[in-house]
Design a protein that fits this description.
With about 250 residues, the protein is mainly alpha-helical. The chain has eight helices and two strands; from the N terminus they run H-E-E-H-H-H-H-H-H-H. Helix 1 crosses helix 3, helix 6 runs antiparallel to helix 7 and helix 6 crosses helix 8.
């Protein structure tokens, strides 16, 4: 049977699908992230009686899960590649959103009102850019920490490199996005209706978001093991070997 001239191997097909889901998760997180949610808790945890965060948290943790799987099976270079692809796609979407806002408006009863469109896509540009900066720093940190733990432990302690890298990188991500979105970004793009928060308030804002990310990082740890099982049983892939850290 003649093979297709550009047929993908099983490993290449899996990587393509992982990259596609990764980019989709990032883009939808940035778009729906302008809506905040509040879920009351039946108890008080670290002084908080409710979970309050952006709806971007619905899919954003998926990006870290997929990054860890790619790092595990394809290496840090491949993980950085999908990080840069996601960044390029998000910047492209940001440009299209701005272009759509600048397009001449058709005044018709069946058209969406411009103020409604702008309220959704124009009210969170600083947050969008801040999220992308935090995403890039967080993802690269996650990849580096994951790689360090893998060199340190070899093929053992999957939970350590998966959960540990996410917990550490999300800590960095939370502080970067909080500072850029609520302080520096509002100073650069001054708006009397949204004054910048003082630096003393940034840690409290960051910690609030980080506690949720920390809980999610712990909760999705079993998914790493499930993903490894799927990669091995369905596609016959094995984790790459790395040189151990020398004592």
């Amino acid at each position: 049977m003649q093979q297709e001239p550009h047929a993908f191997s099983s490993a290449q097909k899996v990587y393509l699908w992982l990259a596609t889901i990764f980019i989709a998760s990032l883009l939808i997180a940035d778009i729906v992230g302008i809506k905040l949610f509040r879920i009351p808790l039946p108890f008080t945890l670290f002084g908080f009686d409710a979970i309050e965060h952006t709806c971007g948290m619905l899919t954003f943790p998926v990006t870290f899960l997929l990054t860890d799987l790619v790092n595990e099976y394809y290496g840090p270079r491949a993980a950085r590649r999908i990080t840069y692809l996601g960044l390029a796609a998000a910047l492209f979407v940001f440009g299209v959103i701005n272009l759509a806002q600048a397009m001449p408006y058709l005044d018709a009863p069946y058209n969406v009102r411009p103020e409604q469109f702008d309220a959704i896509f124009g009210s969170a540009k600083v947050m969008y850019l801040a999220s992308l900066c935090a995403y890039l720093v967080g993802q690269l940190s996650d990849i580096a920490v994951f790689g360090f733990f893998k060199r340190l432990t070899g093929q053992r302690f999957v939970w350590l490199r998966a959960t540990g890298s996410t917990v550490i990188s999300q800590f960095i991500d939370s502080f970067v996005v909080s500072y850029l979105a609520f302080s520096l970004g509002r100073e650069i793009f001054a708006d009397p209706a949204s004054p910048p928060a003082p630096l003393s308030a940034i840690p409290a804002i960051a910690v609030t978001g980080y506690l949720l990310k920390f809980a999610i990082a712990i909760a999705i740890t079993p998914l790493i093991y499930a993903g490894r099982m799927v990669m091995h049983r369905w596609f016959g892939l094995t984790p790459i070997e790395v040189a151990p850290v020398k004592p």
